[in-house]
Amino acid sequence: MREATVLDQLRAHIAQIEGKGVCHATTPFGIEAIDSRLPGGGIAGGALHEVAGSPDLADDASATVFLAGILARMEGPVLWCLRWRDLFAPALHLAGLHPDRVIYVEAGSDTNVLLAMEECLRHAGIGGVVGEIGKYSTTASKRLQLAAEASGVPAFIFRRASKVAQAAEGTAAITRWRVTASPSEDLGIPSLGRPRWQLALERVRGGNPHAWIVEGCDATGRIGLPAALVDRPAAAGDSQIAA
């Protein structure tokens, strides 16, 4: 075998290990103001993402529905790894994620959740893998990112009851989102408008933090951008690029 051929094969193998040159499908939100700030124009497949709410029940529920809406628009079964099963499945269904698509993995601890996620990510053809944990190390995030890159399956770390002021650990995640409840539109009658959230992109690789007021997921998992509201920069400011 010619030396040049051997070198080309080695370069290709190294690129595959590092996840370079591998294109995975993205799932856009369908909102230019948000998609334009994301690598590839949406939620990247074959990558690790983080989602958080807050200790407030309304915020945690909003973050759960936001995540369910993303997964609802992806093909294939969803493996949801958690310490114990306490999700309200009908709420997931309202965001378009049918209960028949969700397989729950009750792992009992954060350590076991991470192990279960990594094992699930070895299998291509899955819609997505979710892991509910409190804290995890940078090394663990790198392992999940590599596993996601290898299979092309998107991975989501879901931090339920995460404090807003809590310092964020280093992570290999491509994006980090925080979802908190916001007042609905005043309809002028005794009725409730479509739920609204403050959606904060706290971290995005190669981009800037940002925040928007959005309308909550509809039955197809899609969020909306109210015409009367404009997007607002995150508190961190646009001047600092997230690594």
What do these coordinates show?
The protein is of the alpha/beta class. It is globular and about 75 Å long. The model is unreliable at 235-243 (pLDDT under 50). The strands form two sheets. An eight-stranded mixed β-sheet has the order 5-4-6-7-3-8-9-10. Strands 1-2 form a two-stranded antiparallel ribbon. The relative contact order is 0.18. Strand 9 (196-204) and strand 10 (210-215) form a beta hairpin. The termini are far apart. The longest helix is centred in the N-terminal third of the chain and has 16 residues, at 3-18. Helix content is 28%, strand content 21%.
Strand order of the largest sheet: 5-4-6-7-3-8-9-10
What is the mean pLDDT?
85
Strand content: 15-25%
How many helical stretches?
6
- Compute the number of strand runs: 10
Which spans of ≥5 residues are poorly predicted at pLDDT below 50? 235-243
Radius of gyration of CA atoms, rounded to a whole number? 19 Å
What are its keywords?
eight-stranded mixed beta sheet, 243 residues, two-stranded antiparallel sheet, 10 strands, globular
